Structures are given as C-alpha cells and as structure tokens.
Input
Amino acid sequence: MTAQVSAAPQATSRPGTPNDRRRVINRRRMRNLGIFALLAGPNVLLLLVFVYRPLLLSFYYSLLQWNMGSPVARFVGLQNYVRWFTDPDTPQIMATTAIFAVATVGGALVLGLAMALLLNRKLWGRGVARTVAFAPYVLSGIAVGMLWLYIFDPRYGLLSTLLGAIGVDSPQWYTASPWALIMIIIVYLWKHIGYVALIYLAGLQGIPQDLRDAASLDGATKLRTFGSVVLPLLGPVTFFLLITTILSSLQSFDLIKAMTDGGPLGSTTTLMYQIYVEGFQTGRAGYASASATILFIILLVITAVQLKYMEKKVHYA
Amino acid sequence: MSSARNRLTLPDRRLARPTRRQLLQLSGLGAAGGMLAACGPSLGGDDGAEEPAEEIDWASIEPASEITWWSNHPGETKDLETSYIEAFNEEYPEITINLVTAGAGYDEIAQRFQAASGTDEIPDLVIASDVWWFRYFINGQIIAIDDVFAHLEVDTSDFVETLFSDYEYEGKHYAAPYARSTPLFYYNRDIWSAAGLPDRGPETWEELQEWAPALREHVPADGQPLALSIGPSWSGWWFSNIIWGQGGAMSEEWTVTLDSEEAIAAGEFVVDMYNGENAFAGFGSDTNADFQTEIFACLVGSTGSLTGHLEAADFEVGTAFLPNGPADVPNVPTGGTGLAIPSSRTPEQQLAAAMFLKFLTETENTAIFSQETGYMPVRTSAIESDTMAEVYEETPQFRTSVDQLQEKTRVQDWVRVFTPGGDQIITDGIEELVLGGGTPEDVFPNVTTQLDRAFEDNVEPYL
Output
C-alpha cells in the first residue's frame, strides 16, 4: 500500500511503461523538429528553390536537345556529354580554364599576402590604404573590364603611352592570342587581391605577438619567423582562400564578357564562358547544361580533394 | 585514430544499408526532382513543331490598354522612341506603352527575350534583329504579322521589298522593318584629295587595292587605308559583300556552299586584304573612332553610323556604294532590326502592339527615324517624301545609302541569319583567316561542319 502511495507521484512525473516514455520522447522530438523547421525552414526553402532546384534542372536539361526559348525538347541521353568530350575545341577550353585558374589563384594568394603584410605594418594613412586596396573588389566586373579596356588600348591607352615612353611597343592585347589572356589575368588580379589581402590581414592580426617574440628571442630572423611561425599559422586562412578563390576563378565571367568576348580565336574562352556562349548565343541549352554539369563536377572534385588532403596539413592555432 | 576512422566510414555504412526512413527521404528527393523537371520544356520527338494556332478574328478583338516594348534604342533613339509613344497616345490615349531598355544591343535583348520565354515577363513588342528573328520563329515565340496587318490595313506593298522580305519564311512575315541598315563605304575626302584620287568610292575591291599605296602615305604608321573591323554581327555581314562579289554565296537555302571556288576565292581575298603583300585593311578597338581621327582613310561601316560620322569628323565625309567584285550582281546585305510581336501575349495585347507597330512604320515616322539616325527609311513612299528630300539636299551622303538600298541589296544567306549561332561560327572562321593565319581551304570545311551541325540540332527538328 505504502509502495503504491509512494509510486503514485512517480507515475505522474515519469511515464511508467516503455510506450509512455517513447511517446514523451517522440513529443519532444516533434517539438524540437518544429522549432528547427521554424528557424531553418525559410533558409532551407530558399536553398532548395534557388540552389538545388536549378542544379537538378540543369542536370535534367543536359540530357535534352533543346533550343533556348523553345517550348519543346528531345531527350538524347548522354549525347551532349559525348559531344563535349569529343569536341575539338574542348582541349583548348580546358587548357585556358586551367591556365586562368592557376595564374589567378596563385597570383592572388601571393600578391594578396604581400599586400596584407604591407598593410599590417604601422604606416601613415594605413586605414585609407586598406580601403583603397579593397575597393576594386566591390566594383562591378563589367565596369572594371570596360575601364581597363581603355587602359590596355594599344593605340590610345595609358599603358601604351607608358610603354612608349620607355621605347616599348604595346602588345596587341585584344587580337594576339597569348596577350588577351594575360590582360584578363592582370585585371582579375587587380580586382581580387584586395579581398585576399583583407582576409590575410585578419589572419595576421590573429597571430599572437608572443609567438613572434619567442622566435625572435630564439634568434630567428624575420624571414625565418615568417616561414616557420607566421606562414604555418596562416594555414587555415590560406586553406579558406584557396577554396574560395578557385571557385571564384573557375566561375569568372564578367571580365571576359566585357573585355574579349572569349576571343581572339577562342583564346580567352573558359569553361564558364563556353556555357554562356552555348546557352545564350548559340542557343544550345542542352549542351550548355552539360558543360555546366561538367563544371560543377570539376568544382566538386577540387573542393573534395582540398578538404580530404590539404586540410590535414593545416595547423590550427 | 581508430575512432576517427570509424567516424569517417560511418556514412558509407549507412548509405550501404539505408533505413526505411532514408529510403523514403530518397524517394521524396526523386519525386521532387521529377516535379522540378516537369517545369522545363515538354518532351517531343524529332518534330518539335507545335499545332498551328487557331486563326484570330482580329475584328472581334479590342486592343489592350497597356503594352510593353523592349528596345535597345538603336542609334541612341530613346528620346525619339519616347516621342513616338507620345505622338501615338495623341491618337490612341487609351493605350499606355511602357518603353523598356532591355539591353545595350540586339544580342542582349535576344538573350533576355529567350531567357524570359515561358514566363509572364515577356514584352508585347520586341526588337528582332536580322540574325535573331528566325530563332524566335522556330521557337514559336513570335506571330506572323500578315493577318493583323491586313486587319489594320497596313500597306505592306509600300515597304522596301528587300527589307520586308528579310522577315519572310514560307510566305509569312514575322516582323516589320524598323531600324534597318546596310554597310556603306565611307571615305575621307580630304585624304582622297591629297592622294590625288577622284572624289568617289572605288568601283571594285581591285581598284581600292590599286589606290591603297597612295592612301597609305596619308595615314599614320599604325593606320591602314581601309578600316574593316571583325567581330560578331559584323564580319559575316561584310563578308557577304565579298563572297557575293566573287559570284558565290555562303549557302543556297540550308546547304552550305563554302566549298565552292567562288567562296574559296573570297576567303583568299580576305586573307590578302589583311595579311597579303599588298594588304590594305586593318582594325582597332573602335574603327568608327579611328576613321574619325584619320587613322584610316576609309571605312566600311553601317549606314546607322552616318549621322555620328558627319557630326564627329573634322574632315569632309564621302559615301559610296560597297565595292564590287568580279561578278556583276547585287552584293549589299541588309541588316539592322525589325520589330516582332510575341506569340504568348493575349490577342488584345498583340493587337495593341500591332497598332503601335503600324504607327512606327508609317511614312512620316520612318522618314524622321532615318533623318535622325541614318538608318534606312523602310517605306518606298518615305524615300521620296518631303522630309527625306530635305535631308538629301542638306546632306547628300544620305542619298547614297538609299540608292544603294534600292539598287544593290539582296536578302542574306540563310546560313548566316537563320542558323542559330551561324553568324558567330562564320565570324570565328573569318577570325581564323585574319588573325590565325588560316587558309580558306583549311578553315571553311570546319566552318561548314559547325554550320551543318547547328542546322541539324537547332533548326531541322523544329521546322
């Protein structure tokens, strides 16, 4: 009887049977799920509609022969992919894409770090210099491209005048095949190193001064301190920048559109630009979608490889 | 270390043996994918053609009260186009017209128009350039205007025949001419005089080649006698003149004929013009500006640039017909843009758009458009109108372009203007000749293959 009396409060506060306990747990789970849905739902919905939906649609369209704008299409399976891999232009497009990516990513990281080291020093007008360095990054790519076209103009451009002053003829930036790509790379770096420098600057300022002091007390030179202390501790920042700049470089479009339209002779046509040409100029929406899917897979593989192999070498402070 | 490895392999195990819930999730994803796919184009066989639309009894339709017009304001005509709308509203105050700047050029408008296909963001009247309208047509995006024009009693026989015929396919017209142009030969009369040349354009390309050494003495070292730029919507246009002048063509209807002797000769002439021993052609980032600043002595440019040259040049600008080749045939292509009415709009909107299109192309309005820009008057009655007579008297250069239009023009080769991407493919081929050191024997077979593929993929299934 006593046992029954003392058991009664327990029965009201805790379910006695496993079924009751499961019901309570499920109710809690449902409540948590509801809160999660309420908080994350809008974002998830936006991602589904504006990221995953186009992604899935693009893959679906890559299996069609479809004129952009036409209400009808024909299912052709993997034909667009076969054509892409057998197209005689593909090797040049991939080579241009690779050269552009390596030059812009490597250049942006090296020059951005150098600029960050400079801006991290106690200089007069440092705040203004930081702002000026970052400003190109927020400008429209089309506007930047148009502006630099004037600078590079072999006949009237500022660069031509400067080169002329030292007795050097201006390269034919628009019409000679290696120079057009070099021109785009230069402008891309000008636009993006401010962003890289800003992120590196934040990383530099997060490195404890104690570590540098300790290295200095141990007799390390500035170069040694940079190589053995600063650079390794910037690992996470470099890793982050490597991923974001590769993605940004491979998706670059605006400068190419504004400055060269992919020419001359296709020498500045990257995979991203080919997608635009095929989709919107030629109107082969299916083929363009196949190219887009291939670009997506390339980006996915690069990111996965970076995460798998490179992250291990990153030192987190 | 071991636990870390276990953590890493855990997802694989779960995927290898999915739970019932995971299977349900995956099937949900699949269903979602299917639903999303259903939003795209409908799947058909080889024949993508739609059922013919029912004929509309235009007499029973009331025009819509508001329509939208997508334009790039060719020849910097935004103010002029706005004034047309105001004038139209004096006659039809019940119809509001929204003028939208839908792109900086014909290509941008076309790309936007195609991207908007299937949405409500489609205009009621749209720019349809010579290399784009046919693509709108095969995609079923525009209507034939013959019936609605007949209802509105538009005198289509008064349109300059070549300009209206450019929009014809199988007996129906899919646009009306608006800002139409042809290439024109411009020359610097001061340089001509200094070089001791007669005050006229060259009769033939051969004659220009003979004149070139005398002209070269009067241009800077980085200049050339002739400015002839290369690029999309341009190279293929002037190449039409060269190849027709040789007696050839880029195609006979859909059959590419770039393997003919005449075509090869035309390609070789292009190589000679830029890179031969007696080369006389060059280009810059802005050949119009380069001509105005006397870096080049003459220029092949659009008639639409005439007003700009007359205003900007500090020298006397002369105009002439494009030079002939060995063959005595019409050898001047037409170009520029017309206006088309989208098929997805309601009959009420289409009727209102057609009424405005009729207004835009009326004799006086097309004459004013020509007067302001240098584009062609699209009606024969406008060519001889008082407005144009005043223009010819003030600036005789206008007369040259109009005479050339009537005497020398010919409808363009289908493969350039009808094949999607055809112009770009031909442009790439000409770039290979001019910049890449290619020969027509090497380049044209590749161009032909690409044009054939574009036709087979993007035209044939839809016709």
Summary: The radius of gyration of chain A is 28 Å.
